[in-house]
Design brief:
- The protein is α/β, with parallel strands linked by helices.
- The chain has two domains: about 250 residues, Rossmann fold (3-Layer(aba) Sandwich), CATH 3.40.50; about 120 residues, Tetratricopeptide repeat domain (Serine Threonine Protein Phosphatase 5, Tetratricopeptide repeat, Alpha Horseshoe), CATH 1.25.40.10.
- The chain has an eight-stranded mixed β-sheet, with helices on both faces.
- Strand 6, helix 6 and strand 7 form a beta-alpha-beta unit.
- The chain is elongated.
- The N and C termini lie far apart (about 85 Å).
Length: about 375
């Protein structure tokens, strides 16, 4: 009966989301044997045809709105995918929820039940009603940040990314967690934040954690650390969350001028590999295929020309035909490749194909016509 009641309440919540992007409801947890306040954000244009990363927010009574606001902003700017965000209010229960054994430092009593509530009730409920990607993140502050670390110790951690805002570590966790991060076999993103006016004990133990983490090496770990000036234990949340999202979703963001200059131009190999690796990583991490952006293709095109990497232009033309099939771009780049390869007749025919399609960015009918006329003039046609 309890399980059916829980599901019914959650389905009512899902129905309400058809007219509201954020809602708060009370659900009854079997694991905790109590009702809990849950907040849920679903993108306004949610589609059953797409899949979405999940972000679980602890201390949702004050961290939820900050997380949702930043996630919406970054998604709007195409700096991260749209996410579903679920928050757990803990105003009167955070210390009980996060209870740990003072000797082992690991969850005990209600802490164990709260852990099971998240993994066995909350996430499965969201997953049942929405299309979730493989990528899942968790956000915590103080004692809830410490608690979120416990998920790392599962053989196959449910979370890929951890936003740790001034964690108040349980005994020995500042040493146990870095060691666990050094051994983990799946890709993990871990962001740790403190501030110059943070709680003194937190600062000291966070510094121990950071120093130990620097001593380990694990290719699967993407570790980030911030020590904010002019911030304290509470304002570190408003500083840290956007920084964490910016770092976690770096691969998702369009190629920047800085990235072009420092990484692409310095890339050792055909620059097209940089583009294909970027989008393969996005698909592996998030479980969906992102359309290759025009911005990214133009960056690779510019680098290909600068490095005289003709084969990358050829491969880029194939990607453009697949991603923007009704535009001139793919045939235009193919024609340029053939022209540079010394195949003027083939180049001319290919420019003619491009001419009959829709203009896009620099690839215009005027430019195609100009290239065709130049080829004809060069060979006296």
């Amino acid at each position: 009966m309890k399980k059916n009641a829980l599901l019914s309440i959650f389905l009512l919540l899902c129905t309400y989301l058809s007219v509201a992007q954020v809602t708060t409801t009370t659900i009854e947890s079997i694991k905790l044997a109590e009702k809990r306040n849950i907040r849920l954000y679903v993108p306004e244009d949610y589609s059953a045809e797409k899949i979405y990363p999940l972000v679980v927010v602890l201390d949702a009574d004050y961290l939820f709105d900050i997380t949702v606001g930043n996630a919406k902003f970054y998604a709007h700017k195409d700096k991260m995918p749209q996410c579903i965000i679920v928050g757990i209010d803990q105003t009167d229960s955070r210390y009980e929820d996060c209870y740990f054994n003072p000797d082992s430092g690991f969850p005990d009593k209600k802490g164990n039940k709260f852990f099971e509530f998240i993994t066995m009730e909350l996430i499965p409920m969201v997953d049942k009603n929405y299309n979730l990607a493989n990528f899942k993140a968790i956000v915590g502050h103080g004692v809830t940040a410490n608690f979120s670390n416990y998920f790392l110790f599962k053989k196959a951690p449910v979370f890929n990314a951890y936003i740790e805002l001034s964690p108040s570590f349980a005994p020995l966790m500042e040493s146990k967690v870095p060691k666990r991060l050094s051994e983990i076999q799946q890709m993990v993103f871990y962001y740790l934040a403190t501030a110059n006016e943070d709680n003194f004990e937190n600062q000291q133990r966070i510094q121990v954690f950071h120093n130990q983490s620097k001593g380990y090496n694990n290719d699967q770990l993407h570790y980030y650390y911030s020590n904010f000036e002019n911030a304290d234990h509470y304002s570190v949340a408003s500083f840290g969350i956007p920084v964490a999202l910016d770092q976690f979703f770096k691969v998702y963001k369009p190629i920047s001028v800085k990235e072009y200059k420092e990484e692409i131009l310095a890339y050792n190999g055909p620059v097209i590999e940089y583009l294909t690796d970027k989008y393969t990583t996005i698909e592996t991490l998030f479980g969906f295929k992102k359309q290759v952006s025009l911005n990214d293709m133009m960056a690779i095109y510019a680098a290909s020309k600068k490095k005289e990497d003709l084969e990358s232009i050829h491969e880029l033309s194939k990607i453009a035909k697949a991603e923007y099939p009704n535009t001139m771009l793919g045939f235009f780049w193919e024609a340029e490749y053939l022209e540079q390869l010394g195949e003027p007749k083939k180049a001319l025919r290919t420019y003619e194909k491009a001419f009959g399609m829709s203009e896009i960015d620099f690839a215009t009918k005027d430019l195609a016509l100009e290239r065709m006329e130049a080829l004809k003039a060069d060979f006296g046609w």
